[in-house]
């Protein structure tokens, strides 16, 4: 049974295909408002860490078995199996951010958004899109961390995610053509939702 979360302040769900620049834009958002108004809900994943990723900072790294057990126990608001690995947002992770009076940011995929929409969370939804599929492919290849098979999987998934982003009800659909412009647009959107941010 899912635990009820009192969403005050309302969380922000940021969604988009792998390689759209979600992580970079979230980082810029934290720099724009350094007065610690935001808290980042650290997702759980069963995938192996990439170079430079820190457990508990970038992700809570886990195992498939452990995550399946915690999912069965109702400890996740949302979870999804993506590219053969589990990803999820824990109830505890969101509560921890909200208990400090911060706006909780969740970086999740489209499967996760569908689950959150069924939950009691009531967040704002933002979709981050690349300017084109060609641009997305170039970004994914530029990471240098993915095998060709994984790149093809991510690109196939991205096509469906882009369609979902356009068709579904997101509060903001943002095209990340370049980081400075997208970052400014993201900041002004969130400031409009939370006028006290600049204080």
TrEMBL record:
EC number from the UniProt entry: 2.7.4.8
PROSITE patterns referenced in this protein's UniProt entry, alphabetically: GUANYLATE_KINASE_2
Enzyme class, spelled out: transferase
Identification of the protein by name: guanylate kinase
Taxonomic path: Eukaryota, Sar, Stramenopiles, Ochrophyta, Bacillariophyta
Record InterPro entries: GK/Ca_channel_bsu, Guanylate_kin-like_dom, Guanylate_kinase, P-loop_NTPase
SMART domains, A to Z: GuKc
UniProt record similarity statement: Belongs to the guanylate kinase family.
Guanylate kinase-like domain residues: 9-191
Keyword tags: ATP-binding, Kinase, Nucleotide-binding, Transferase
A GO molecular-function annotation: ATP binding
Any single Gene Ontology cellular-component annotation: cytosol
């Amino acid at each position: 049974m899912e635990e009820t979360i009192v969403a005050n302040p309302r969380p922000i769900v940021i969604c988009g295909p792998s390689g759209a620049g979600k992580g970079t834009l979230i980082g810029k958002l934290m720099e724009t408002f350094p007065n610690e108004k935001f808290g980042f809900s650290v997702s759980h994943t069963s995938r192996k860490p990439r170079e430079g990723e820190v457990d508990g900072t970038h992700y809570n790294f886990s195992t498939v078995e452990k995550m399946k057990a915690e999912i069965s126990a109702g400890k996740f608001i949302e979870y999804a199996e993506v590219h053969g690995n589990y990803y999820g947002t824990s109830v505890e992770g969101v509560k921890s951010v909200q208990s400090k009076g911060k706006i909780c940011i969740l970086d999740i995929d489209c499967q996760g958004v569908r689950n959150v929409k069924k939950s009691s969370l009531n967040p704002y939804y933002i979709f981050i899109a690349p300017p084109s599929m060609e641009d997305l492919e170039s970004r994914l290849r530029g990471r240098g961390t993915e095998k060709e098979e994984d790149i093809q999987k991510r690109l196939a998934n991205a096509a469906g995610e882009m369609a979902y982003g356009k068709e579904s009800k997101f509060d903001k659909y943002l095209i990340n053509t370049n980081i400075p412009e997208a970052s400014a647009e993201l900041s002004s959107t969130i400031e409009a939702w939370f006028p006290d941010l600049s204080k």
